[in-house]
Amino acid sequence: MASVTLKKISKTYHSVNVLRDIDLDIKEGEFVVFVGPSGCGKSTLLRMIAGLEEISDGDLLIGSERVNHLSPKERGVGMVFQSYALYPHMTVAENIAFGLKLAKQDKGTIDDKVKKTADILQLGPLLQRKPKEMSGGQRQRVAIGRAMAREPKIMLFDEPLSNLDASLRIQMRSEIAKLHDRLKSTMIYVTHDQVEAMTLADKIVVLNAGGIEQVGSPFDLYENPATLFVAGFIGSPNMNVIKCHLHQPGESITALDIPELGTLDVKINSQTAQIGEKVVLGVRPEHLEIQASETGLEIVNVEYLGNESFVYLQIGKEEVPLVARVSAYTTYKVGDKVQVSIAPNAAHLFDDKGRAFKRT
S-adenosyl-L-methionine: present as a keyword of the record (predicted)? Predict the structure, then answer.
């Protein structure tokens, strides 16, 4: 178990900046998830920590040691990839033991570590099976076991669940969370799936276009997004965004002019802004309250999901409708009109550069 520190880490391919000035502290035993859209640099950053990609600039420390020059083996990391990459002609036991044999450990030590790893991952009854005789979830546990058996200081996961179907992903999320709880090891996990990030992480690192947008707990990122990008990326369905103007900036209460909705007071500190300035209002679907009316916004779609329903509302000429999360037993239907209200303390406000104003 070890801490990881990134100081001004950058990666350049042929003069193209893939990652720039990444500063990040990961504590011992922490479960950190890198999340972001395809191409944001999250897998490249993980591979740089592993030693599979060279660092163009900056310093990488594992514990107190600078490791830029060290090989993956010397860094004491174990990595689990998107593909299982198991040897098909080997049994589960042989796959788990493979790295230990390469390290020239004695047979007794190898057998003990294989058994210990298999017990933790509940692979004991499967040790003599070959990969083709197992399910996708079992194969992924073997891949985790192969990395874990070497007792690395840090476990790295590069989208390990993306090849599994939906039910197996849910099961494996739970397995990985329980594994971290048992081992208390430092884990760094890459995914494009914000649900995986929210359910697994102690700390989420949101990456976008080669830089860090925000670092924080799942609660922090959901309740207090620092940018419009984070607000839209974290949460499902996405946060509603409405273009509007400042009617009256304030230190604790700000008034907004919102097309189609009128004037709204929100508990946000916008005293640094100017009257009439263009801003973006953000509100989560569960905080968008609707009530049947003869006038108002028109319902353009209703999605019934069993435990809840989503009601989509057309606002002006915007291509993206607003969405309200309501009871599963709603009677709203397409074509109905509704009045919309937003609780003042549930609103988020962003400037024209996508940066959040402070909520009060």
Answer: no
